[in-house]
Amino acid sequence: MNHLEEAAGLLKQGELVAIPTETVYGLAANAFNEEAVLKIYKTKNRPHFNPLIIHSNSVERFEEWGIFLPEFALKLASHFSPGPITFVVPTSNKIPDMVTAGHNSVAIRIPNHPITLELLSMLDFPLAAPSANPSTFVSPTSASHVKQQLGNKIKCILDGGNCEVGIESTILSFLENTPRILRYGGLAKEQIEKILGIKVNVPQVNGDTSKIIAPGMIERHYAPNKKLIISSDFEKEIMNHQRMTIGSISFSTNYKNIDYKNQFILSESGNLDEAARHLFSALRSLNELNIDIILAENFPDEGLGIAINDRLKRASVQ
Ligand code: AMP
Ligand code: MG
Fold it and tell me: Are residues 184 and 101 in the same domain?
């Protein structure tokens, strides 16, 4: 029996399997099996109000399960699925409340990884799969990251190498007339708008419109066990923290006043896609270093820079 057959067998029995995707590794269970889905929440220590994304390998299969994409979503799916885009659409009665956290919508995605696409084709149910890390920790972008944190809790981790996108999917809601981004992620807003030919709505935070924000977008997330300061003036921060050992995350700049071993330059060539790919492993490494604080740059507010800034901001919440 190869790994895929073993994984499929475990999933059919209601067990959890860690799966590789192009965004981050997922902790997967049969989305139709409430007990299996409950194991995800328990294993991650995830709050029950935080709904899960379900995964399959084609739009047609979601339709067979009574989940339909409106026109804008179909257009995006034809360009970007499989890929780092999640569609929030009206749910179907086949999907347990445990998956949607009781909402009348469901989040669906077709992940772009050959191993997981093959696994999905072997199953007659979708996989509910959040990131394969304890709740509020940094998401895993390699099988060894999963093993470090959840290895003793799950029976099977499919190793699909390092995640190519490295940051979670962009979540779009199609519940209003105009699509709305609920979470910035691995597909840039500019690319979405280019295909649709319209401006999409952006996440809403406080005030009366707070209901529209993606449920479960917890403010403190990805948080390292050291203070993380986001700054556009590193030299000033270095001056202000002279007695401290500093670790850093920068886009492409090398800071001569910070020990090179403690510096994580996410893309020497200044490429935001590459920077996103390296972000989470840099946060993990910084967590393990003997440093006092982490300085992180403000990334350009465009392309995947928006998602990077979002993750850094949530990592900076104490
Ligand atoms: P994660 O699996 O940790 O990447 O998180 C999945 C995220 O998808 C949740 O935290 C929500 O923000 C979002 N999500 C899932 N289902 C829905 C839904 N029905 N409506 C809105 N957002 C959702
Ligand atoms: Mg997560």
Answer: yes
CATH of the domain at 191: 3.90.870.10
Q: 203-213 pLDDT, tens per residue?
A: 876 554 444 45
Report yes or no on 222 lying in a domain.
no
How far does residue 208's CA lie from ligand 2's centre (Å)?
Answer: 26
Q: How far is the CA of 96 from the centre of ligand 2 (A)?
A: 20
Q: Which residues surround ligand 2, an ion (CB under 5 A)?
A: 130-131
For residue 217, tell me if it sits in a domain: no
Same domain, 206 and 237: no
Domain enclosing residue 237, as ranges: 227-316
DSSP secondary structure, the chain, as one string: --HHHHHHHHHHTT--EEE--SSS-EEEEETT-HHHHHHHHHHHT--TTS--EEE-S-HHHHHHTT----HHHHHHHHHH-SSSEEEEEE--TTS-HHHHTT-SEEEEE----HHHHHHHHT-SS-EE--BSS-TTSPPP-SHHHHHHHHTTT-SEE----S-SS-SPPEEEE-SSSS-EEEE--SS-HHHHHHHHSSPPB----SGGGGGGSPTT--SS-S--SSEEEEES-HHHHHHHTTTS-EEEEESSPPPTTS-GGGEEES-TT--HHHHHHHHHHHHHHHHHSS-SEEEEEPPPSSTTHHHHHHHHHHHT--
In a domain, 192, yes or no: yes
Read off the pLDDT of residues 250-304 as tens digits, 9 standing for 90 and up: 999 999 999 999 999 999 999 999 999 999 999 999 999 999 999 999 999 999 9
Q: Are residues 155 and 269 in the same domain?
A: no
**Ligand that comes closest to the CA of residue 184:** 1
